[in-house]
Amino acid sequence: MTPHNASDDSRWSDLDRPPLNAAALRRGLVREGGLWSRVELVQRTGSTNSDLVERAAAGTAGEGAVLVAEEQTAGRGRLDRQWSAPPRSGLFFSVLLRPTEVPIARWGWLPLLTGVAVATGLSRAAGVDTALKWPNDLLVKVGGEERKAGGILAERAGEGGVVVGVGINVTLRAGELPVPQAGSLVLAGAVSTDRDPLLRAVLRSLEDWYGRWRAAGGDPAASGLQETYAAGCATLGREVRAELPGERSIVGEAVAVDGDGRLVIATREGVQEPVGAGDIVHLRPA
Questions:
Q1: Which CATH superfamily is domain 22-231 in?
Q2: For 110-155, what is each residue's pLDDT tens digit?
Q3: CB neighbours of 18 closer than 8 A, spacing ≥ 6?
Q4: Strand ranges (DSSP E) for 5-123?
């Protein structure tokens, strides 16, 4: 008789967290002439981003490949932060994009575009009001407080590819939050936490926004991306501190997102400084 393993038992007995249906996802997303070429579901992996970057380098994944994991053991956020969550408690996936007709200088918009797509898809399918913290954190309101419920990480994959990874806390309960500032869709009062339709909605929204952006040659203004991102960005209009590389920081009001996707901060000295990389801390409520 094999020994009873309590952890394995609990993985499959949590009725609030049914597994994703790979066949249904493929039927709903992979179609002739569409962006999504392949949808693969794995039970467990270190990082879907790392796996897809490797496949892109090896030539075994093409544009529109989607890799979804029920659990990530070495998920990464921006600045190499760890991202962990219980199995089947969220959506953890990566996509491979090859925007060859868009100038590389505009590829920095891809994580911001993904943020807009995720927020749009979730507001439709989960009925949750979401906002974006620059550059690519997904915020929800839990008990009137802003909490981070998701994040986006983009990485170059070979010469002409970008892998964009998304992590979204869906059914994470209060006692499971990794840090007090975290949140989830269920804690934000989502009308649905069924991950199959949520993932389909997010990927359809991403296909739509990516198509518009690509058709405009990556122009963030002509595609409507810059305006839509600004409208949903919780960072704009707030006093912020930008912690920059080299242990430098600046404090001021976040006043705009410029044409390169950088956050423009008006400092107390009257200087408008664009920030392209760094950690942003919201210093006061919107």
A1: Bira Bifunctional Protein; Domain 2 (3.30.930.10)
A2: 999 999 999 999 999 999 999 999 999 999 999 999 999 999 999 9
A3: 88
A4: 38-42, 65-69, 75-76, 82-83, 90-97
**Radius of gyration of the chain from its Cα atoms, rounded to whole angstroms:** 19
- Yes or no: say if 114 and 164 are a contact pair by the CB < 8 Å rule: yes
pLDDT in tens, 170-200: 999 999 998 889 999 999 999 999 999 999 9
**Tell me: the pLDDT tens digits for 11-36?**
445 677 999 999 999 999 999 999 99
Burial label for 25, CB within 10 Å (0-12, 13-18, 19+), is: buried
Q: Domain locations in the chain?
A: 22-231, 236-282
Q: Is 262 exposed, middle or buried (0-12, 13-18, 19+ CB in 10 A)?
A: middle
Select from 1.20.1250.20, 2.130.10.10, 3.90.1150.10, 2.30.30.100 the CATH code of 236-282: 2.30.30.100
Contact of 152 with 122, CB cutoff 8 Å: no
Tokens at 23, concatenated? 């066949």
How far apart CA 115 and CA 112 sit, in angstroms, is: 5
Q: String of b and e for 76-106 (b: at least 16 CB within 10 Å)?
A: bbbeeeebebbbbbbbbbbbbbbbeebeeeb
Which one-letter DSSP state was computed for residue 183?
A: -
Cα within 13 Å of Cα(108), Cβ side: 15
pTM: 0.92
